């Protein structure tokens, strides 16, 4: 049976505690479900550390552990909680190497989900970390991407923000780029929008619209690779960055970089710029394949 | 003559003379950014540092923004501190930290990031991971940050070897404690089950209360008096009690000699560093 993202995270975590002798901090880790089944059933004497429900302090505890060079994992069960967890991480851990020459590597597992999650907990919030220097952000959605991300972290000495999504946990497939020589449009999807973007590409093709798809694993630092640029420049209508965070963050930033470095316009599509409610009528969901198709048609039709 | 008091005075003397020079350097604009002088509060870190020396303990130290005296009492490099205040790359925080974010790796003194009270959860997490004796300094104002409370609570839950030190100068800039709150930090800590005391900055009072330090979490709220402005070079009230002057009078000629000697050392070092372009 193919390995899921869930199993990948679980085995990497077990290895991190058993072999690397590190610690994994978080709230309610050992509760029923073990964070969507992504954690091995281990307890405090094995390195699985239950913290308080005081999010700001918890971020500080992890920074302290990071200063001891143990490369802690920090599980934040809802990305929206990063508004409380991030202050000490971004203000201390991200700056420590630069100011004091002491690196403070932390592997932050920040988990998104949506649908009836309300104004705080839903969707991705990787944009709040993006502004800070010396913080790396990746959004792995496949088993190999997750392994790559973890291995990168273990060889690096900076804060890694891992923008996870619960809907990816069952995934066993790798998601490959489709780079066409003559695209009408190029999609640059981030996080969970990658799955919907792939679906959208199929729908668009049925409508006679040829879309390339270039998956975005690295959010920060963002490197605009030459063959991406080439694909974008050869496209008829430019690009579209897709995100499950608000458009006014990472998506706009990446689109801006792409436009500076290419000859094409790059549009964005993410969460609507409004507060999310709990009820389906007031929710604020990541762009679905249908919404992506509509946006592409809108771009093409001017 | 009490040997402990003299040793503490010796440390405090270095701190006092250092910051008196910095006071001048702020006035003549040699130092040009916000600077937090420890003058008046030296006896808190000096006494604790001496107790640690006597107990042969080398703790991890998490410093606060007003930290010159903590840095110097625990053996931080004085030349690197001067360079830091001059904004030089050779400074103890690469010339980036200024007065508020000083550190000394060799003495396990971790820098402060300027976010009030953040050093408390960071120290707790560090102590939890290392299990090493750890001291964290905060002011009576930063102690009011909500994450400080949860940090003390978690330290108590995990029973880690940490000492919380509140340098209680009764002021948040110039706002007195009674205006801000109707509770004391030792009561808060006791509420979490932490051994806690509200004491003066008399060195022997501090020494006495550190008998069981690091056997479990402990909090000392130490009442002290800041002699100068919150930041910069100025005097709010010239008539406040000065622990350092009081001790010097009490200890007699030996302390006066120590004071004069450390004054000369500090002034010479500043002069020498300023000659380097």
Q: Can you offer a commentary on this structure?
A:
The complex is a heterodimer of chains A (302) and B (277). By secondary structure, chain A is an alpha/beta fold. Chain A has two domains: 5-168, Thiamin diphosphate (ThDP)-binding fold, Pyr/PP domains (Rossmann fold, 3-Layer(aba) Sandwich), CATH 3.40.50; 185-300, Rossmann fold, CATH 3.40.50.920. Chain A is built from eleven helices and eleven strands. Chain A has helices spanning 5-18, 34-37, 55-67, 82-100, 118-121, 127-130, 143-155, 193-206, 226-234, 250-260, 289-300; strands at residues 24-26, 48-50, 73-76, 107-112, 135-138, 159-165, 185-189, 211-213, 218-220, 239-246, 266-271. The longest helix of chain A has 19 residues, at 82-100. The N and C termini of chain A lie far apart (47 Å). The model of chain A has no long low-confidence stretch (mean pLDDT 96). Chain B is α/β, with parallel strands linked by helices and 277 residues long. Chain B has a domain at 33-216: Thiamin diphosphate (ThDP)-binding fold, Pyr/PP domains (Rossmann fold). Chain B is 46% helix and 12% strand. In chain B, helix 9 (203-209) links the parallel strand 7 and strand 8. In chain B, helix 1 (3-27) packs across helix 2 (43-55), helix 1 packs parallel to helix 11 (253-275) and helix 5 packs parallel to helix 6 (146-158). The longest helix of chain B is centred in the N-terminal third of the chain and has 25 residues, at 3-27. Chain B starts with a helix and ends with a helix.
């Amino acid at each position: 049976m193919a390995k899921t993202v869930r199993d990948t995270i679980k085995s990497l975590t077990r290895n991190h505690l058993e072999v690397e002798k590190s610690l994994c901090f978080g709230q309610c880790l050992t509760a029923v479900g073990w964070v969507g089944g992504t954690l091995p059933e281990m307890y405090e004497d094995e390195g699985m550390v239950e913290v308080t429900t005081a999010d700001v302090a918890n971020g500080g505890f992890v920074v302290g552990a990071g200063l001891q060079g143990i490369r802690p994992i920090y599980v934040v069960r809802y990305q929206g909680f990063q508004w409380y967890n991030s202050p000490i991480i971004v203000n201390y851990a991200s700056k420590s190497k630069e100011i004091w020459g002491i690196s403070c590597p932390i592997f932050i597992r920040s988990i998104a989900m949506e649908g009836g999650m309300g104004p705080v907990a839903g969707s991705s919030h990787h944009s709040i970390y993006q502004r800070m220097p010396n913080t790396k952000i990746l959004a792995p959605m496949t088993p190999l991407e997750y392994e790559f991300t973890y291995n990168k972290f273990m060889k690096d000495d900076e804060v890694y923000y891992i923008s996870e999504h619960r809907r990816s946990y069952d995934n066993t497939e790798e998601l490959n780029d489709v780079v066409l020589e003559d695209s009408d449009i190029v999609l640059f999807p981030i996080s969970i929008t990658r799955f919907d973007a792939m679906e959208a590409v199929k729908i668009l093709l049925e409508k006679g619209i040829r879309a390339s798809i270039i998956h975005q694993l690295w959010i920060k630092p963002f490197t605009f690779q030459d063959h991406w640029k080439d694909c974008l420049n050869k496209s008829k209508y430019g690009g579209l960055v897709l995100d499950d965070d608000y458009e006014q963050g990472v998506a706009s930033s990446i689109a801006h970089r792409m436009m500076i470095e290419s000859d094409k316009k790059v549009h964005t599509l993410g969460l609507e710029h409004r507060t999310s409610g709990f009820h389906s009528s007031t929710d604020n969901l990541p762009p679905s394949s249908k919404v992506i198709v509509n946006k592409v048609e809108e771009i093409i039709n001017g | 003559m009490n040997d402990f008091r003299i040793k503490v005075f010796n440390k405090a003397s270095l701190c006092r003379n250092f910051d008196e020079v910095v006071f001048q350097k702020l006035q003549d604009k040699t130092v040009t950014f916000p600077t937090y002088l420890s003058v008046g509060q030296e006896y808190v870190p000096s006494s604790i540092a001496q107790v640690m020396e006597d107990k042969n303990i080398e703790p991890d130290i998490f410093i606060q923004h007003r930290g010159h005296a903590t840095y110097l009492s625990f053996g931080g490099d004085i030349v690197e501190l001067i360079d830091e205040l001059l904004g030089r790359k050779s400074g103890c925080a690469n010339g980036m930290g200024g007065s508020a974010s000083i550190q000394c790796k060799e003495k396990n003194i971790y820098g402060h990031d300027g976010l009030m009270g953040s050093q408390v959860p960071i120290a707790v997490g560090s102590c939890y991971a290392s299990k090493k004796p750890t001291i964290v300094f905060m002011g009576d104002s930063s102690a009011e940050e909500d994450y400080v409370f949860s940090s003390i609570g978690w330290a108590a839950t995990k029973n880690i070897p940490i000492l919380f030190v509140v340098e209680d100068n009764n002021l948040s800039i110039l706002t007195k404690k009674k205006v801000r709150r109707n509770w004391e930090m030792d009561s808060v800590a006791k509420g979490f089950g932490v051994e806690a005391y509200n004491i003066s900055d008399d060195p022997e009072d501090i020494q006495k209360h550190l008998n069981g330090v690091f056997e479990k979490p402990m909090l000392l709220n130490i009442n002290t008096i800041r002699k100068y402005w919150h930041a910069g070079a100025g005097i709010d009230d010239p008539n406040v009690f000065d622990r350092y002057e009081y001790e010097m009078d009490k200890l007699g000629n030996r302390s006066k000699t120590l004071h004069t000697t450390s004054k000369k050392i500090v002034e010479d070092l500043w002069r020498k560093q300023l000659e380097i372009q």
